Automatic annotation (TrEMBL), chain A:
This is Succinate dehydrogenase hydrophobic membrane anchor subunit. GO terms for molecular function: heme binding; metal ion binding. Pathway: Carbohydrate metabolism; tricarboxylic acid cycle. GO terms for biological process: tricarboxylic acid cycle. Its cofactor is heme. The gene is sdhD. Part of an enzyme complex containing four subunits: a flavoprotein, an iron-sulfur protein, plus two membrane-anchoring proteins, SdhC and SdhD. One of its GO terms (cellular component) is membrane. The lineage of its organism: Bacteria, Pseudomonadati, Pseudomonadota, Alphaproteobacteria, Acetobacterales.
From TrEMBL, chain B:
This is Succinate dehydrogenase cytochrome b556 subunit. It is a multi-pass membrane protein. CDD domains: SQR_TypeC_SdhC. GO terms for molecular function: electron transfer activity; metal ion binding.
Length: 140, 152
């Protein structure tokens, strides 16, 4: 007999489950994958951020307004903020999944999502205001 | 029973009464390894980086609001305690970055043998601490130089 024809099971999943691509979490590997993809995107954005911190170290308000008014800077800043708070939400969700069991799990997740969403939104609005309508006057 | 998983911890004694099964041994029975500390440190660094980022949004908001708010926030960022907090944020960000790169390498199938992981751990600590020190020193040096130039 040919030994290579022995039936083998390589994947411990039904064909239907493989076709759907969804596991017990019902969303497949989406959460895990997006956590990785946002991490990869944050690598160059973090490098840019470090350069900007060096550029802005010791600057006064006028310098910051001039810096934030440049479209290239506000675009990068917006991308950094959106991805940072998205990645933060994904990461904190894993921590809540690990340590908060039973009934408090849902309210804890919702609270965390609400807070990260609002701070992220706040960051985006601040960047847009700095870019489009900065206030230079004292006492404004 | 709050959690459905608790059902798996219920067992029967020989007389038929119900009992909670013992849980598997946890942290205290294992010898300390650097990799177990680095693993939880990555999670803690992620949380610390998140908290610091929320504070960084306050800086952005002050810059958008105007010179008065910005001056208030500068009082914090130029205070020794503020600088200490910023340095802590930098360490958390840098370590989370380094550990994140290790995770991406592991996910791609590299350096995931026990031997490799034990070799890379101390390197990750060195790189994270070294980068943070250089970064904080550079930013502080630049800030001092520029402030002096403006004052003169």
């Amino acid at each position: 007999m040919n030994a290579t024809l022995t039936p083998r099971i390589d994947v411990m999943r039904s064909q239907l489950s493989r076709a759907r691509g969804l596991g017990s979490a019902k969303t497949g590997v989406n959460h895990w994958w997006m956590e990785r993809m946002s991490a990869v995107a944050l690598v160059p954005l973090s490098g840019w951020f470090v350069l900007q911190v060096m550029r802005l170290a010791g600057s006064n308000h006028d310098d910051v307004v001039e810096w934030g008014g440049k479209p290239a800077n506000s675009s990068m800043l917006l991308a950094l903020m959106v991805l940072t708070f998205y990645h933060m939400q994904l990461g904190l969700q894993v921590i809540i999944d690990d340590y908060v069991h039973g009934k408090p799990h849902l309210p804890a997740s919702l609270l965390m999502k609400g807070v990260t969403f609002l701070i992220g939104l706040f960051a985006v609005i601040a960047v847009l205001k700095l870019a489009l309508a900065p206030s230079r006057k004292a006492g404004a | 029973m709050q959690d459905v998983r608790d059902a798996l911890y219920i067992g029967h004694r020989s007389d038929g009464t119900l009992t909670r099964r013992p849980m598997s041994p946890h942290l205290q029975v294992y010898r300390f390894r650097l990799s177990m500390f680095l693993s939880i440190a990555n999670r803690a660094a992620g949380v610390a980086a998140a908290a610091g980022s929320a504070l960084a949004v306050c800086w952005l908001n002050a810059a958008a609001k105007g010179p008065d708010s910005f001056r208030k926030v500068q009082k914090v960022t130029r205070h020794p305690l503020g600088i200490l907090a910023l340095a802590g944020w930098a360490l958390a960000l840098v370590y989370h970055f380094v550990a994140g790169l290790r995770h991406l390498a592991w996910d791609a199938g590299y350096r995931f043998e026990k031997k490799d992981i034990n070799e890379d751990g101390p390197v990750a600590v060195g790189v994270a601490v070294g980068t943070t020190v250089v970064l904080v020193a550079t930013v502080l040096g630049l800030a001092v130089c520029r402030s002096r130039k403006k004052a003169s």
